[in-house]
Specification:
Helix content: 40-55%
Largest sheet: 7 strands, mixed
Structural class: alpha/beta
Oligomer: single chain
CATH topology of the largest domain: Rossmann fold
Shape: globular
Strand content: 15-25%
Radius of gyration: 23 Å
């Protein structure tokens, strides 16, 4: 197999060199942003040890749009920010487990509400300083808004949105609530609104809201682990497939900056209430005094009225400092805040219900390179990473294969060795999901390495498998392909052959995204080409196959 490592390293080096010296970005969660910002694929990381005048911050990837603000902050305060990106709920787990101790000085997520539900998480935070605010909203394409008779959208309720979704009149994209805080905030908002909860959301409230939640989520046609990819998928989708996006007001307004006129979104903030992000810059209790001083200087600077005004203009979020002027695009009226879950158990139960009961089920095909170069540690790593997806101790539905999910494994080398499909049953029935999850794991552990790499042949077979499954079932699922390889395709169909194959597909199959995983000496050019051709996204599993397989779950 021919390695392209040298050329890939050169491209990455050039990318890193072009990034402002202010921000150092890691690939914790390589999720692109619709706003200009540093490359999420940069390979640098925050300094391993604390340094004077430097704040190492674990943050939500949407904060990439703060780059110009923080560049000015460095000049004014002498404080340099080094970011590592992560999903908000994954970041909360890192803080609660102590994995952030000593590695980061602060965290900056859209919200700390989920983190505060955990006693261990609360104890890790020394202070929190809200910096800006943005509520969850629904961006509806203007033509769809007119068809629904909602006027300018200022009087719409969550119930009306749910009714339109269940009637097939409104389809939308939303990020995965187990990964993204915007998706989680949306889930909490609709559960609170549908249940009529007047105080902290309880398990009984969730049960009361469940029938309405199921109807609401019939309208979800796009899912994603990041807001940036979701906006891109919305732009690529056929005009009639997706009529709205659910996300923070600021993300929707920022997305409009990049959308053509016929896809512009009218931002609807439901009148019965919202869940807002207040972006608290939070100091970790493990942080040394010198970094605490840097934190204090930075937060004081960010809260000054002039800086708050500029933050609002750049990010389209609302100021938190009284008297600071908001960006002209932001409405002046506010919505009431809907109640949040009162305990971690309620929050995790709501997330688990979403994954296994409320949302549309998934159809997922894993195309796995088991050529000779995978022998030894690599095939062992693959078995371990995929095996983790069959675990049953996942409290919020982040990692394991979901109830009602159809999972196909395709093992290939010089040709397709075998393809096996599993249907995970719903919990509570007989049999439950445990036996099928164990069967998937048995197939994973049977993988063996030998032969060449006919990557494109195997990928074309994945599309044919999905076509047969969809015709047999006659259903409409979230459908995706995951392609894992450690080398370059050197047998069978070429990249040109695959492009011709893909171009000839009908519109439905053509829209199925492929999420390639780079591993070992994989040919990045080939994999990026596949991601671009299919509308997917390239992931890097070099450092951790476990982490990247779990991350991709947010896109399935």
């Amino acid at each position: 197999m021919n390695s392209r490592t040298t050329r890939t390293t050169q491209r990455l080096a050039a990318s890193v060199a072009s990034i402002t010296a202010l921000l150092v970005v890691t690939a914790c969660t390589p999720s692109p942003s619709p706003s200009p910002g540093p490359s999420p694929n940069a390979t640098d990381a925050p300094a391993p040890t604390a340094r004077p005048g430097v704040l190492r911050i674990l943050a939500g990837s949407e904060l990439q749009d703060m780059a110009p603000i923080l560049e000015d902050a460095k000049k004014a305060t002498g404080v340099t920010v080094q970011f590592a990106w992560t999903g908000s709920l994954d970041g909360a787990d890192a803080v609660s487990s102590g994995k952030a101790d000593g590695k980061y000085d602060a965290v900056w997520f859209p919200s700390n509400q989920y983190l505060r539900l955990d006693t261990g998480g609360r104890s890790k935070l020394l202070s929190e300083t809200p910096v800006m605010v943005s509520p969850v909203a629904v961006g509806v394409r203007s033509s769809v808004l007119n068809d629904l008779g909602w006027g300018d959208g200022s009087k719409v309720t969550w119930a009306q949105i749910g009714d339109a979704a269940s009637a097939g009149k409104l389809s939308y994209g939303m990020s995965d609530p187990s990964r993204s805080n915007s998706g989680f905030s949306t889930l909490v908002a609709v559960a609170s609104a549908f249940s009529g909860a007047g105080a902290a959301l309880t398990e009984e409230d969730v049960q009361k809201a469940t029938p309405s939640l199921k109807r609401f989520f019939t309208g979800q046609k796009l899912t994603s682990g990041s807001s940036g990819w979701l906006a891109q998928a919305y732009t690529r989708a056929e005009p009639g497939k997706v009529g709205a996006l659910v996300n923070y007001e600021s993300v929707l307004l920022s997305t409009n900056r990049t959308l053509p006129a016929d896809r512009q979104l009218t931002v609807v903030r439901p009148v019965d209430g919202v869940v807002s992000a207040d972006y608290p810059l939070s100091l970790l209790s493990s942080t040394a005094q010198s970094e605490r001083d840097s934190f204090q200087r930075l937060t004081q600077y960010l809260l000054t009225p002039d800086v708050q005004k500029r933050i609002s203009e750049v990010t389209l979020r609302r100021p938190v400092t009284p008297g600071a002027a908001a960006a002209p695009a932001l409405p002046s009226d506010r919505r009431r805040e809907l109640p949040f879950p009162g305990t971690r158990a309620v929050a995790d139960g709501l997330l688990s219900s979403y994954q296994n009961e409320l949302r549309r089920p998934s159809r997922t095909v894993y195309v796995l390179d088991t050529s000779g170069s995978m022998e030894g540690a690599r095939i062992t790593s693959l078995k371990s990473a995929l095996g983790r997806l069959t675990g049953t101790d996942d409290t919020r539905g982040v990692s394991r294969f979901r109830d009602r999910e159809e999972v196909t494994l395709i093992s290939f080398a010089s040709k397709v060795k075998w393809a096996k499909t599993h249907a995970v049953p719903a919990s509570g029935g007989q049999p439950g999901p445990e036996a099928e999850l164990a069967s998937i794991n048995a197939d994973v552990q049977s993988l063996s390495a030998d032969g060449g790499t006919a990557l494109y042949d195997a990928l074309e077979e994945a599309y044919r498998v999905i076509d047969r499954q969809q015709k047999a079932a006659g259903d409409d699922r979230f459908t995706s392909i995951v392609l894992m390889t450690d080398g370059e395709s050197n047998e069978g169909a070429t990249d040109g052959d695959f492009k011709k194959f893909h171009d000839a597909l009908a519109s439905g199959p053509k829209s199925i995204p492929v999420f390639p995983i780079k591993f070992g000496e994989a040919a990045v050019g080939q994999l990026q080409g596949i991601a671009d051709e299919s509308g997917g996204k390239l992931f890097d599993g070099t450092s951790s196959l476990d982490g990247v397989f779990e991350e991709i779950r947010g896109y399935q």
